[in-house]
Amino acid sequence: MASCPNFSELEQRTYIKFRTILEIPPKSIHEDLATICGENTLSYSTVRRWVSQFREGRTSVQDAPRPGAPKLATNNDKLSEVKEYVKSFPHSSVEEVANYVGISTGSAHTILKADLELRKVQVRWVPHCLTFPQTATRLQMAKENLEIYEGSDPRRLLELVTGDETWIQFKPPIRKQDGRVWLKKGEVPPAVGVSDFRAPKVLYCIFFDGLGTVAQIPVPKGQTLTGQFYADVVLPEVEKHYLKHRPKTGTRGLKILHDNARPHKSLAVRQKIKDMGMHEVPHPPYSPDIAPCDFWLFRKLKDNLSGREFEDRLSLGRAIYRYLEVIPKDEYRKTFENWIKRLNSVVAYKGFYFEHS
To answer: Considering only CA atoms, which of 296, 286, 230, 237 is closest in space to residue 259?
Structure first.
């Protein structure tokens, strides 16, 4: 009889099954298969094992599922289940997806990565969950400012003065990236406590323009930053700076850019700004990403003070003054140019928060 090398293993098992039903002994079955399949014949021990199982009542010629073997799960139903689950629960783990759908973690991983082409990334933290009217306001004000300042004479940016308030601790916390120390093998790293909101600190009002620092005013201990204090103490310091550097015009014609904190929008502050001959630059609520103090100066200042300890308000104030004075003037100018770029990002993202470095 001619041999048939393409006689598959499954077909040989089927042959064994029917020959077993006819009560043919394993040795004879193996000899028949060897005549038919030649070198592709199942081994005699394999034939004997299958004969034994068929005699005990087995009917299937397929391999039995092995413990722990991944289930096949790439059919459309499973794909749809996984897709709907991760849409409803985007923070879920691969194990949670697998348990819900009833498949192995390997199959779940394959569906997520290969079939659905998904990847799990860190969420992007934002200052505020913006409503539609808030995004519309951000978009409108960004466009208004761009119409005035983008592409205009670079000297127009020198008309801008910006300021805000920030708390600075006597012992500013160490930044995470600065928390690494040199230790010998087996030594225990020192513990560093998280920042305590009750730690001694000073509230500073800091202003700058495209040429450098304009004013840094520490709020006295026990004093609340009210609109009246802002109008009577803070803004006069800004005015004093410009009377010294622009004796003929002082603050007349300058534009002040600050956020929508309640003291900034009080009637007393608005009247003082008007008396100083200044104009307010429109700035939308919940927008620290386009406030120069927030996206640049305060972060830079606190990075410099990180890990240092100051005995009193005087030593802290000196450190702040010295650092603000050594920042290259060019960086102050570039910050307002960066402000223009960020306004363009607001427009590009239709008022929503944008990715930035």
So the answer is: 286
Locus of tokens 């498949």: 103
Report the Cα–Cα distance between both ends of the chain, in Å, rounded.
77
Q: Which of 341, 294, 345 is nearest to 138 (CA)?
A: 345
Strand ranges across the sheet with 160-169? 212-218, 201-209, 160-169, 255-257, 279-280
Residues linked to residue 215 through DSSP beta bridges, in sequence order: 207
Contacts of 329 (CB under 8 A, 6+ apart): 211, 212
Q: How far apart are CA 70 and CA 276, in angstroms?
A: 75
How far are the Cα atoms of 22, 125, 212, 249, 289 from residue 331, in angstroms, in the given order?
A: 94, 27, 9, 25, 18
Give residue 353's identity as a one-letter amino acid code. Y
pLDDT digit string (tens) for 267-312?
999 999 999 999 999 999 999 999 999 999 999 999 999 888 999 9
pLDDT single digits (tens) 108-164: 888 898 888 888 887 777 788 889 999 999 999 999 999 999 988 888 999 999 999
